[in-house]
Design goal:
single chain, alpha/beta, Arc Repressor Mutant, subunit A, Rossmann fold, 3 domains, five-stranded parallel sheet, three-stranded parallel sheet, 11 helices, 10 strands, elongated, transcription regulation, Tscrpt_reg_HTH_GntR, transcription, DNA-binding transcription factor activity, Peripla_BP/Lac1_sug-bd_dom
Length: about 280
């Protein structure tokens, strides 16, 4: 069973890290915390004493307790400045094992380690990983954005990274609101070349399947459209199906089936997919 003061400390710390108690904002008084957690004053004082020592809160004499700038002013642990935070949408499948392995190899050569986070393309997971890595005082970030074409609710956390001075780089996509450097493939050009090849070799009815809540999918779809624009004789024959990462995969597959199980003269002669894993499905 977890010791009471440890439980209280962990809960207050999580509220600070998650932004419920914001930097320089006053936190509840000792009496209020005692009532909230149903514990003694000694337990509260031990918990907040640890948090003060670690740099998460500070006291103003006669004015209560406030949230410290915990990113820049907290007590550094022995792990400080030894890890690079790597956040991707997936870890174990598709291209990601090779990407993460390559990152780890380069970072290891610099005497650093990798702290890995996985968002599953969910904003809540992205937020949790970013805050956890800030709390672990990573030296920098390598991040694959989550649903990069949509409005991101975690820009406040990214601003915390900017304010901390820690370097960050995006891979595969980027958020246009942020000025972090990024490394991307030219998805529009690559998709156009792919569809050009199909159209130049006699295909007319090509079905394109694209995930449209990330930048890669939208850019690939744009490449698909550009290819048909440069083949005006078949420009009305292409077909596009869009989906989002949150959609039920079985429902999406049923829709694909509906596009394929048609009379021969209307059936697509080729299909281009969002990525290789789609082809396997």
């Amino acid at each position: 069973m977890e010791i009471k003061y440890v439980m209280v400390k962990k809960n207050i710390k999580n509220n600070i890290i998650n932004g419920k108690y914001k930097i320089n904002e006053k936190i509840p008084t000792e009496a209020e915390l005692m009532a909230m957690y149903s514990v003694s004053r000694y337990t509260i004082r031990r918990a907040v004493g640890d948090l003060e020592h670690e740099g998460y809160i500070y006291r103003v004499q006669g004015g209560g307790m406030y949230v410290n700038d915990w990113i820049n002013n907290k007590v550094r642990s022995e792990r400080s400045n030894q890890s690079v935070g790597v956040i991707t949408t997936h870890i174990a499948d598709y291209i990601f094992p090779n990407i993460i392995s390559g990152i780890d190899q380069v970072i290891s050569e610099e005497g650093l380690s990798v702290l890995i986070g996985n968002t599953h393309d969910e904003y809540d997971n992205e937020r949790h990983n970013l805050l956890n890595m800030l709390d672990n005082d990573v030296v920098g970030f390598i991040i694959e954005p989550t649903r990069s074409t949509l409005e991101n609710p975690n820009l406040d956390v990214y601003q915390m990274i900017v304010n901390s001075g820690k370097p960050a780089v995006f891979i595969n996509a980027h958020y246009p609101q942020l000025e972090f450097p990024y490394v991307e493939i030219d998805d529009t050009k690559a998709e156009k070349q792919l569809v050009d090849h199909l159209l130049d070799n006699g295909h007319e009815r090509v079905l394109g399947i694209f995930q449209v809540d990330d930048l890669q999918g939208v850019n690939r779809m744009n490449g698909f459209i550009k290819s048909y624009q440069t083949h005006p004789n078949v420009s009305s024959s292409g077909d596009i199906m869009m989906y989002r990462s949150s959609d039920n995969i079985n429902n999406v597959l049923e829709k694909v089936k509906g596009r394929v199980d048609v009379q021969l003269e209307n059936r697509p002669t080729a299909i281009v997919c969002y990525n290789v894993s789609w082809q396997l499905k």
